[in-house]
Specification:
479 residues; alpha/beta; OB fold (Dihydrolipoamide Acetyltransferase, E2P); Rossmann fold; 4 domains; 9 helices; 21% strand; elongated
Length: 479
């Protein structure tokens, strides 16, 4: 049974409202918190969101309150977005000025009155500076600071004389990449480029590993790229947090190919920009830098060509003058030599004519003497040779008769001798010719008892068989 007196809900909420108004009326507080559950109604310009505080160790929520921003608070949020380039959205860490109120229908309400832009920018800058210190500490072999600038292995590389083959790291739907390619392809100097695209996500701090992997892919491709260009088409300040990561800063600083950045930010310089070879503000500027680099090479070549032409003209002029002087000297010297040699030749001409006449007269006399000797000497020689020939003929005739008689006597002797030793005469004297196997034999070496032989006599040929064989020396037939 209810013993206390009851009241209406409106009375209770009215008392709560009165108590809170008495406690928080005309008071404001600067609160550090994270934004969650944000929603924005553009038609009215209202922001609805929660402010939460998380435990630093476990990230568990330790406090949460609903908040709104309209009117002047919405204006201050818009100014915050313009100054920082950071949209007011979930998961950003902010310092906001709020007031506390209570509505009998809507309950407890925190109203955003102002937002500190310096706090958010300062937090990002603090993180950035911490990352830079870590890079200098852990990567001292290829990153060091000199004044306000960082010297890295990458920004100490030299561009090749001409940049033509380019690896581009960008997102697949990047408008910045389209601007970059359009600028390269439509350059007014007619330069041509070969670009290989390595598409990946280039937004979000957690995506730094993907961009690093694309750098690894470029290195492992084995292609001799002239430069690597990292492109992003612009965005809010926090959209560039990927390029302020330790992972990507280290990868770019030690990369062995010059890296050009064109990630679309106009205000702040990212860590990746500081580590890269050539940072630019936009993709278009990156393309213009490449074109300008090639143009400087072309200008240097044209300038060298002009210097060569001028120097060639100077050398030609100098040597032409020297050649002209030498030509004149050669002509004058030639004329002098010809004149001198002409006089010498004229002298030799007279000398030859005079000496020739003298020689001709002398040799004519000698020739007449020799001619007379030649005419008389052959007659004497011919007469002597005729006498010798007559004597020789007489001797030949006499000796020929004697020689013929001697030879005739020798022939008669040999004729008689041949008749005596002819086979017919020998057979008539009682000798015989023995044949074995159709061949004449002159010894019994091949004949044995039982052999068949043929014996040719003067008037017949006898066929016989050997019944015995007695050997003897030749002494029995010696004469």
């Amino acid at each position: 049974m209810i013993t206390s007196e009851s009241i209406k809900l409106s009375a209770l909420t009215g008392r709560i409202q009165q108590a809170l108004n008495d406690a928080f009326a005309a008071q404001t507080y600067w609160v550090v918190a994270d934004v969650t559950n944000h929603s924005y109604y553009a038609q009215k310009g209202y922001h609805y969101f929660d402010l939460v505080e998380k435990d630093s160790a476990s990230s568990a929520i330790v406090a949460k309150v609903a908040a709104v921003a309209w009117g002047n608070g919405a204006v201050r949020i818009r100014e915050f977005e313009v100054v920082t380039g950071q949209p007011f959205k979930n998961d950003i860490h902010v310092l906001v000025k709020v007031s506390v109120s209570y509505h009998q229908v809507h309950g407890l309400q925190i109203s955003l009155l102002d937002i500190d832009t310096n706090f958010t920018v300062g937090m990002l800058e603090q993180q950035k500076q911490q990352t830079l210190v870590r890079l200098q500490t852990e990567c001292a072999d290829f990153i060091r600071k000199a004044g306000d600038h960082y010297i890295t292995r990458n920004n100490q590389l030299q561009f090749r004389e001409v940049i033509q083959r380019i690896a581009v790291i960008t997102s697949g739907n990047s408008a910045g990449f389209q601007d970059f390619r359009h600028t390269l392809e439509h350059n007014r100097f007619g330069y041509t480029f070969q670009t290989d695209t390595y598409f990946t996500v280039v937004q979000g701090e957690s995506k730094a590993e993907l961009v690093q992997q694309k750098l690894i892919d470029i290195y492992n491709s084995g292609i001799a790229y002239d430069a690597v260009v990292i492109i992003r088409g612009g965005g809010a300040q926090t959209d560039f947090l990927l390029f302020d990561t330790f992972l990507l800063g280290r990868a770019v600083a030690k990369f062995p190919i010059p890296v050009i950045t064109g990630i679309g930010h106009q205000k702040n310089e990212t860590i990746t920009d500081m580590m890269a070879h050539s940072p630019t503000k936009t993709p278009t500027k990156a393309a213009e830098l490449i074109i300008a680099h090639n143009k400087s090479f072309e200008d240097a070549v044209l300038e060298m060509r002009q210097r060569i032409i001028i120097r060639s003209q100077q050398l030609f002029s100098t040597h032409y003058q020297a050649l002209s002087a030498l030509n004149a000297a050669v002509i004058n010297q030639t004329r002098n030599i010809i004149s001198i040699q002409k006089e010498v030749l004229h002298h030799y001409h007279h000398t030859v004519l005079h000496d020739s006449q003298s020689l001709l007269v002398k040799h004519q006399r000698e020739l007449m003497t020799v001619s007379g000797e030649i005419l008389s000497t052959p007659r004497i020689l011919v007469a002597g040779k005729r006498n010798d020939l007559t004597n020789l003929i007489a001797n030949i005739r006499a000796f020929n008769r004697l020689y013929t008689q001697n030879r005739r006597g020798q022939l008669a002797h040999y004729e008689t001798l041949f008749k005596l030793v002819s086979p017919d005469n020998i057979l008539r004297r009682g000798f015989a010719i023995v044949y074995q196997d159709g061949k004449i034999i002159n010894n019994a070496g091949t004949v044995s008892p039982g052999s068949n032989i043929s014996v040719q006599l003067h008037d017949a040929t006898l066929t016989a068989a050997v019944t015995g064989k007695t050997t003897h020396d030749e002494r029995g037939t010696d004469i």
